[in-house]
Amino acid sequence: MKQADFIAGRRERWERYQNQLKALRQRKRQDVPDDFPGQYRRLCNDLALARSRGYSLSLVERLQGWVMEGHAFVYQPQARLARRVGTFFASEFPSLVRREWRLTCLCCLLLFGPMLWLAWLIGGNPEFVYRILTPETITRMEQMYADAPSTGRGAANDLFMFAFYIMNNIGVALRTFAGGLVFGIGSVAILLFNGLNIGAVAAHLSFQGYHENFWTFVIGHGALELPAIALAGVAGARMGLSLLFPGRFGRLTALRRSARRAVKILYGVIVMLLLAAGLEAFWSASPQPAGVKYAVGGCLWLLMLGYFVFAGRRSNPVAAVRAD
Questions:
Q1: Closest CA to 15 of 41, 43, 37, 50
Q2: CA nearest to 244, candidates 235, 254, 234
Q3: d(CA 314, CA 22)
Q4: What's the DSSP call for residue 80?
Q5: d(Cα 322, Cα 320) in Å, to the nearest integer?
Q6: Phi, psi torsion values for 132, nearest 5 degrees
Q7: Terminal CA-CA length for the chain
Q8: What is the pLDDT of residues 14-58, one digit of tens each?
């Protein structure tokens, strides 16, 4: 092949490669474009061909310069962990949740639906709570919320409760997630179970005169904890659906593909639960005025809603779906 034909057949690709190099050089992009490594490998092949065919020294040197410059970007050290984590929570996590909006709506319905139903039912028939909860559980809940916190528990007790909440909440999330492996049935059952139990406790305490002590305690950390449990159900249900409807793949292959996305959602769930445990241990039981707790709790619920609706919408959509 003549050198002129060789250059003409590759000119457009080389120009694209040069534009990407320029953008990387000027820091217009934080990450290497997804197709840049492939462009780099093809350019290495072009350089090898130019050398083997004895093309002009100026062409060989030009290609070699592009290869050497591209090498620095393709094989640069991995981005710092803090930046990758920041990118995940600023963009990828909420984008993944929005992509699963149907499952998210379903799991929220399974968790919050029983709560609303029991609030209406127990409000009209207080004795119905005994069909959901044992008398011992009801007595324990009434004793727990009989008095508002007047003084802090102390740093040692707060740390102990922080560890307890982490173990309890993350345990619930992991069981909800793993329940998806039973064709999604386990995730559905755990969400319904938690919705019924939490709803029964909330309705009973609200209608029996413990409403202020109960709601000022739960409204803050509940803004992270309850959505996190629902999202654990989303991750589990995604795996369950891949087993029920594997499509053109085998069930194990479909499960592996869906697990990539589900596990990423679970990463976000765990961080949400860690934050919720911190709020529950150090803020929810603190002796703050009820109005302050309601205001903070309301803001947290609005922030969580806004985060999942708006965060990451201007980011590269490819990055949000690379789990596929």
A1: 43
A2: 254
A3: 22
A4: P
A5: 6
A6: -105, -45
A7: 40
A8: 999 988 888 887 765 556 777 888 888 999 999 999 898 889 988
Domain assignments of the chain as residue spans, ordered by start: 3-74, 82-320
pTM of the predicted structure, to 2 decimals = 0.73
Residue in the block written with tokens 């008095």: 147
User: For residue 228, what pLDDT band results from cuts at 50, 70 and 90?
Assistant: very high
Residue 249's pLDDT is what?
85
Contacts of residue 188, defined as CB under 8 A and 6 or more positions apart, other chains included, come to 110, 179, 233, 237
Q: How far is the CA of 116 from the CAs of 80, 110, 200, in angstroms?
A: 44, 11, 10
* Of 81-85, 169-173, 226-230, minimum mean pLDDT range: 81-85
- Answer yes or no: is pLDDT of 152 > 60: no
What's the average model confidence in pLDDT over 200-221? Answer: 93
Torsion of CA 300, 306, 307, 311, to 10 degrees: -160
Residue with tokens 């803001």: 299
**Which pair of tokens denotes residue 33?**
């474009």
